[in-house]
Structure formats: structure tokens, C-alpha cells
Inverse folding.
């Protein structure tokens, strides 16, 4: 039976005096913390806090709200605050952060460029993954640089994956070198496939 | 009688910087991104509004839009910029999915007589919420077991007023069978049909901006939300922000249906894709509360 909706007047208005920064940290339930994150979306002074909570927050829906607010305020500071989480043990968080970074190509590109020399292989693999789908004109060049110089085979393979999609014929020399640097058979196989594709 | 033509004031040219400011402001407030393809459309509407308010420059007009305390001109501007195209039974395979899949699941453990809440946002001129109502009455066997509330809202005050009136022309009714037409409409002549009063009275129409958190708090406890053919006008961030706000409006386990060219990529932590009757809809997961 269709009934006329009783207007929900229980307007979930903010209780006056509520402080989103505090609620984000110590709100008892996920809904409160999500709302706090949404309220901070135009408060650049809280970028540091939002980035920090991301690493502490166990509820995925709150993390999603935090990331949306950070993407809304995208800036070099946000990008720098986010990349730290690429080192997290939490795989879900790492991939959420990766997606968010892809939404701020201009801000994240210089940060990624610095991370090409990071001592942690896993971080460089993430950097290669992000570059592979980053809408930034320098992304192919940076991937080519990884392929030419990175000492770790998995990093080079991740970069090669990316170049398969966004590389061009000018990068074939570095790719052709790969099998000489890494004797593993799959490297030769992957390099040949990439070369065929880029030359084709 | 011939009305005397009001002479429209000459206005100073709108500069690219003006447009940029305007686009940014409009986007911030509505989520809508204008692409270059829309430039002509936007320019024409904007000039019309500037002239209608008797302003001579964009700056003068823009100040009214931003600072007028009633917000009336802002509303007029929004009304003139929105694309309101819609018709009865558009993408109706989703209504099948609602009746065959979503509602049975939602109501499985619900007591008879309890509420089921469905929300059409944006509803434009009302065809979508009325189609939902008709489809439920025609096809959901358990429709009488529950108090079905249909909410409908749009940012555009003009279309909401039209939706409340419920008068439609032939074009918007094309997909409706003659049977349904005679059952749910009264012919007004002139190729105009009015939806029956019982239906008009049963739907709660409202004005609400989907990217405005304060507007969205009015809608809570929804079971199914139809949010179709709006997110295509947004960019990724606005899309995500609005979907996150819709998440707050849903009951745990509730569903969102998007238009066929829209998808929920990247919000996977909040929603799980579900397939019903050959269409993908998105179910709220997680703590919900
Ligand atoms: C193309 S219609 C879609 C109507 C219907 N859902 C359908 O699929 O046929 C898009 C509607 O979105 C409304 N709209 C645009 N921006 C909005 C916003 N920020 N909040 C709510 N409605 C909005 C417009 O006024 C317009 O009526």
C-alpha cells in the first residue's frame, strides 16, 4: 500500500558545539566519525589530522570519507601526507590511498618522482602501479626511468606493465636491456611482449 | 493582446576569467561540471539570467547570485542550467530488479505493516517516482503488506512543482501501455494527461541538493535509492561525495540504483555490486549506523 511519507523531521542536525576534529578522533560510532570527516572537507588546516587518522581508522567507511575529503582539498601537502601510507601493513589502506592519489596527478607527480629512489621495494612497486594509470604527461618517462635503473626485478616488471599501456617507441631501448640485467626467463618473455606491442 | 516588448539591457561581454569563476562556483555548489560541449548552452542561459535581473555586467550579477539573502536568483540560475530530460518507465528493468530481487530481500524479515522507503533523487518532473509507484502496484505481490513511502527530490524547484502537478504530454508517456494509461491517468484533452490524485498524494516531493550535506540529513532510513542520470554530470570527487552522502541515508543492506552509463567504481568499500534481473545495483555494506 502506498502511503504518504511522514517527513523525517528528526533532522540529524549537528549538535551545537560539536567539534569535527575531535569527533574524527574519538567519535564513538563510525557514522559520527564519517560525518566529522565530511565536515572537514573544506578545512585545509586539518589535512595533517585527516592523513594521520587514515592510518589509525579501522572502519573502511570512515576511511573512504576521509579520503574523499582529502581529494576535495588536493594539494602537494595532501599528496605528501598520503604517500606515507603506501608503507602501511594494511593492504586495503594501501590500495585505497593509491586510488586517491590517482585523483590528484599534478600534486602527486613530484612526490612520486622523489619516491623512485625509495629504499623500500614495495613502495617503488606501488609508485610504478600509480604511475601506470596516472593522468600525467611525465608518467611514461618516469616509468622508463625505473626500467632503466631500478635494481629490483619486481619493480621493473611493475613499470613494464605500465609502459605496455602508456609507453611509446622511444622507450624500447631500455626495455630491450632488461633481459641482460635480469636473467630470469619471465623477464625476457615480458620484455619481448612489450617490445612487440610498442613497436607494433 | 500584444504585450509591449521589454527592452533587454545590453550587457558587457563575459570574459574567460568570468566564466572560469562561474564554473567553479556552480560546480562547488551543485557538483555539476560543464564541459566545452556545453559552453554555448551555458553562455546563453547565463546571459538570459543577467538580462532578466537587469544587471549590466557579469560581476554585478554574480554578486547577486552569491550574496542575495533569499537565494532566489541562485535558484533561478540552477533551474535554468539543469538538464531535466526524463520519461515514464525509463530503464524499467531496474524496477523489475526492485520487485524481484531487492524488495523481497529487504522485507524478508520485516513485520507486515512496517515501512518500506524508496527515494527517487533526482526526480526531475516526476516520471521516475510515479513509474516506481505504478510498477510496485502492478507487480509487487506483497505491496499490500507494507507501508510503502515514496520520496522524490530534485535541486530544481520548477521541476518539483511540475512533478507535484503531475500533468504530462504524450511524449513522456510513450512507454506506457494503453491499459496503464487509462488506469492511472485522466485525459485532460490537448494530449495532456494527469496522473491520478491517489498517486500524486502518495508521493512526497521535495527540493534537495544531493551534494549538500545539510539537505541530505532530511532523508534517512531509505531502503532503495534511485539516483539515475545525474552523476554523469559530476566529476569523480563530487560523485564520490554524493554517493557517500547517500550511504548515510540508507538502511543497512539498502540499495542504490544508478543509470545504465553510471557506475560505482572506486567506492567498493561502502557498497557491494549485486546482480538482479540482469542489472547491477549497489548494496550498502558495513556498520551502516
Ligand atoms: C536527466 S534528469 C534525471 C531524472 C531521472 N532520474 C531519470 O533518470 O530520468 C537530471 C536531474 O538532476 C537534477 N540535478 C542536477 N544537479 C542536482 C543536484 N546537485 N542535486 C539534486 N538534483 C540535481 C536536475 O535538476 C535534473 O532534473
Amino acid at each position: 500500500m502506498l502511503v504518504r511519507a511522514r517527513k523525517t523531521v528528526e533532522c540529524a542536525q549537528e549538535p551545537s558545539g560539536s567539534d569535527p576534529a575531535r569527533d574524527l578522533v574519538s567519535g564513538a560510532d563510525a557514522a559520527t566519525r564519517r560525518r566529522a570527516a565530511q565536515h572537514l572537507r573544506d578545512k585545509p588546516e586539518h589535512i595533517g589530522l585527516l592523513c594521520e587518522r587514515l592510518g589509525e581508522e579501522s572502519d573502511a567507511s570512515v576511511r573512504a570519507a576521509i579520503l574523499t575529503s582529502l581529494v576535495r582539498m588536493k594539494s602537494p601537502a595532501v599528496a605528501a601526507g598520503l604517500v606515507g601510507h603506501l608503507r602501511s601493513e594494511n593492504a586495503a589502506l594501501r590500495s585505497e590511498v593509491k586510488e586517491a592519489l590517482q585523483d590528484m596527478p599534478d600534486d602527486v607527480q613530484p612526490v612520486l618522482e622523489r619516491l623512485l629512489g625509495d629504499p623500500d621495494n614495495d613502495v617503488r612497486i606501488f609508485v610504478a602501479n600509480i604511475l601506470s594509470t596516472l593522468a600525467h604527461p611525465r608518467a611514461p618517462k618516469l616509468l622508463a626511468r625505473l626500467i632503466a635503473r631500478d635494481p629490483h626485478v619486481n619493480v621493473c616488471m611493475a613499470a613494464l606493465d605500465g609502459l605496455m599501456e602508456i609507453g611509446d617507441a622511444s622507450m624500447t631501448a631500455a626495455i630491450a636491456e632488461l633481459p641482460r640485467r635480469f636473467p630470469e626467463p619471465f623477464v625476457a618473455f615480458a620484455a619481448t611482449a612489450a617490445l612487440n606491442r610498442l613497436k607494433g | 493582446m500584444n504585450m509591449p516588448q521589454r527592452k533587454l539591457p545590453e550587457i558587457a561581454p563575459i570574459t574567460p576569467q568570468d566564466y572560469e569563476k562561474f564554473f567553479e562556483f556552480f560546480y562547488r555548489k551543485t557538483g555539476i561540471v560543464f564541459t566545452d560541449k556545453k559552453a554555448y548552452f551555458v553562455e546563453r542561459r547565463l546571459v538570459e539570467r543577467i538580462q532578466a535581473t537587469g544587471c549590466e555586467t557579469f560581476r554585478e550579477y554574480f554578486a547577486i547570485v552569491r550574496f542575495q539573502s533569499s537565494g532566489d536568483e541562485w535558484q533561478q540560475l540552477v533551474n535554468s542550467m539543469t538538464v531535466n530530460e526524463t520519461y515514464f518507465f525509463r530503464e524499467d528493468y531496474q524496477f523489475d530488479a526492485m520487485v524481484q530481487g531487492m524488495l523481497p530481500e529487504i522485507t524478508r524479515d520485516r513485520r507486515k505493516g512496517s515501512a518500506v522507503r524508496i527515494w527517487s533523487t533526482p526526480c526531475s518532473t516526476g516520471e521516475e517516482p510515479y513509474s516506481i509507484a505504478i510498477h510496485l502496484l502492478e507487480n509487487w505481490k506483497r505491496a499490500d503488506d507494507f507501508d510503502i513511502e515514496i520520496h522524490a527530490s530534485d535541486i530544481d524547484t520548477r521541476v518539483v512543482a511540475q512533478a507535484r502537478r503531475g500533468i504530462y504530454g504524450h511524449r513522456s508517456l510513450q512507454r506506457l501501455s494503453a491499459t496503464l494509461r487509462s488506469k492511472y491517468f485522466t485525459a485532460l484533452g490537448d494530449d495532456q494527461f494527469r496522473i491520478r490524485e491517489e498517486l500524486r498524494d502518495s508521493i512526497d516531493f521535495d527540493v534537495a541538493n544531493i551534494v549538500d550535506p545539510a539537505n541530505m540529513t532530511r532523508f534517512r532510513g531509505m531502503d532503495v535509492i534511485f539516483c539515475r542520470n545525474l552523476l554523469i554530470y559530476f566529476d569523480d570527487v563530487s560523485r564520490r561525495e554524493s554517493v557517500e552522502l547517500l550511504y548515510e541515508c540508507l538502511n543497512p543492506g539498502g540499495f542504490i540504483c544508478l543509470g545504465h552509463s553510471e557506475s560505482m567504481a572506486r567506492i567498493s568499500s561502502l557498497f557491494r555490486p549485486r546482480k538482479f534481473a540482469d542489472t547491477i545495483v549497489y548494496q550498502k555494506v558495513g556498520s551502516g549506523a
Chain B touches chain A through 41 residues (CB under 8 Å). The domain at 16-81 of chain B is CATH 1.10.155.10 (Chemotaxis Receptor Methyltransferase Cher; domain 1). Chain B has twelve helices and ten strands. The pocket of S-adenosylmethionine is lined by residues B 30-32, 82-86, 90, 122, 124, 128, 154-156, 159, 209-211, 228-230, 259 (CB under 6 Å).
